[in-house]
Amino acid sequence: xxxxxxxxxxxxxxxxxxxxxxxxxxxxxxxxxxxxxxxxxxxxxxxxxxxxxxxxxxxxxxxxxxxxxxxxxxxxxxxxxxxxxxxxxxxxxxxxxxxxxxxxxxxxxxxxxxxxxxxxxxxxxxxxxxxxxxxxxxxxxxxxxxxxxxxxxxxxxxxxxxxxxxxxxxxxxxxxxxxxxxxxxxxxxxxxxxxxxxxxxxxxxxxxxxxxxxxxxxxxxxxxxxxxxxxxxxxxxxxxxxxxxxxxxxxxxxxxxxxxxxxxxxxxxxxxxxxxxxxxxxxxxxxxxxxxxxxxxxxxxxxxxxxxxxxx
Length: 312
Fold this sequence. Notes:
This protein is about 35% helix and about 20% strand. The protein has about 300 residues and is α/β, with parallel strands linked by helices. It has a single domain, classed as UDP-N-acetylmuramoyl-L-alanine:D-glutamate ligase (3-Layer(aba) Sandwich), CATH 3.40.1190.20. The two termini are about 30 Å apart.
């Protein structure tokens, strides 16, 4: 059975309620969203994370269990409360975040909690930039990616840049992300993060320099494209009425990775243009369904919903 091991934040998303200045509690966090998307597509998913020893933490652990995601590090901590993110939405459904994280529990994941057996039993190791900000979570994230690389796994990374968490210090964020490039072979960026790779016009030089065989760029409603083997593979998006874009990129990436695994991909040499196009289109369908509803995890579609859209 294929398996994806995700590392990073599991937190509370407070999304806008129906009354003015009201918020609704939802489970969130980019790696957690990805893990749920993977599980909803029939692939085993596990998550290494940290939550506080509080009601929010218990709610999140219960949610992961309900979603079929194995929490590899279930011990709650007393050093900090569960990380909170308050989501603001524009009339067009675009979101921004305000984090209560000074510190937050997600920052306390330790390198020694990344177990060799969890890496060995997985086909893809995935993480994002949020936990690269400070130690000990930085060390834990790098340890997972390094071990995945050393064990010959597919190693995935989502830049997922959040300016307010880095206090606007983009150069610091770019340096942190650059430090993990030697370990990864699948990099996800948004159309707003192309400067992390030196601009799309230089993408193939960047990939050759860093020995990264696959870079995938999400393009919002325009779909997505993959840069691979000196070429570009592009898949158009699906029309959708946008309600909330929270988690759309995670829904895309979890579905994309699941589709790769379901097509038998276990190493970069297994990739082909045809496999990538199918996975891009599959991921686009997942993201399209996700933005049509409010809340990240609640909006992530199942394999059956994605296949229904693809079959129309």
